[in-house]
Amino acid sequence: MKVLLTGADGYIGVRMGNYLLERGHDVTGMDAGFHRVGWLYDAGERRPETFTKDTRDLTLEDLQGYDALVHLAEVSNDPVGELNGDVTYKINHEGSLRLAKLAKEAGIERFVHMSSCSVYGAAGERPSKEGDPVGGLTAYAKCKVLVEESVAPLADDNFSPTFMRNATAYGASPRQRFDLVVNDLAASAFLTGEIRMASDGTPWRPFVHILDISHAVACILDAPRDVIHNEIFNVGNDRSNYQVKEIAEIISGLIPGCTLVFGDSSADKRNYRADFTKIHEQLPGFECAWDVEKGAKELIDIFGRIGFTEELYKFRGHTRIKQIKHLLDTQQIDDDFFWR
Length: 340
Ligand SMILES: NC(=O)c1ccc[n+]([C@@H]2O[C@H](COP(=O)([O-])OP(=O)(O)OC[C@H]3O[C@@H](n4cnc5c(N)ncnc54)[C@H](O)[C@@H]3O)[C@@H](O)[C@H]2O)c1
Fold this sequence. Notes:
Helix content is 37%, strand content 16%. It is an alpha/beta fold. It has a domain at 2-175 and 206-241 and 270-290: NAD(P)-binding Rossmann-like Domain (Rossmann fold), CATH 3.40.50.720. It is globular and about 55 Å long. The protein binds nicotinamide-adenine-dinucleotide. Nicotinamide-adenine-dinucleotide is lined by residues 7, 9-13, 31-35, 54-56, 72-76, 91, 95, 114, 116, 166, 168-169, 177, 180, 320.
């Protein structure tokens, strides 16, 4: 299939581009390139040809000749989304809706959107299913809901959107992120032999490895159209729901002598579990190959191999909010996040 992958130079995009190429797809990447400065390690993997553009500037011409558009390029994660809520809405909601309309006009039949389990907000103890009420707590999560709600009515005989509500991602990527809890705790345990948490770690969160997200995209591209047409899938498996303290315990167990200290606050209101029955029942070939322990081991192996340092851990290229703030402070991007 001819696939246009937006956000191909991001944390997930770098590994997904390779994954889809290896599955035999003809992939072209596009990305504004906000985070290209970060490159933690070289995996020697093939990557798609990628052009630099903002999604808000994409034209009908740019979208000609593709069978599928896999859309990753958004302001990604809650803290960056809160930096400038207005821009988050412009890129993540209006920009993604405009892109879906253009894709439809260009005759692209499949539009795969990266939504998030964070749309379930503070859902409580029962794992949330795709049909449950949503209520994102942040601009980022609210935009995910808005895209689902505004793109779904575009579905017709020639245009099939699919919305992937991914659990919180983890795992190694050359374009590494340490603003994600598994990656952050693995790095800090490796460097200091200690995990010190401000919170008591009681909130529930679902987690999924970035290669399992990539596999879900591959399954969606391969699936019969009626299976994925205008469908929402929670992406993860029945072992994906963890309390954050379990994550800390798993990771500290991988580093000999690692100590673990919990705080007493539970300031993080994001507390939800997701039910992953639908994707396993409905999407042919989907299963997760990873769990947090395997993903953390992969990270720790890479840290050892590359001589990972505090400097690399703290580098702005590996934490989205630092890099976006840097681009704003140095006036490389304007207040609307357009390159100057
Ligand atoms: N990481 C997670 O936990 C997670 C979970 C669920 C969903 N998602 C979603 O998956 C997608 C990819 O996430 P990621 O973790 O790889 O994020 P990322 O920030 O590492 O990558 C996003 C990429 O999109 C690009 N981008 C942003 N705005 C753009 C614009 N206006 N035009 C062109 N390019 C632009 C950035 O340069 C970056 O390379 C996002 O939509 C994110 O919301 C991520």
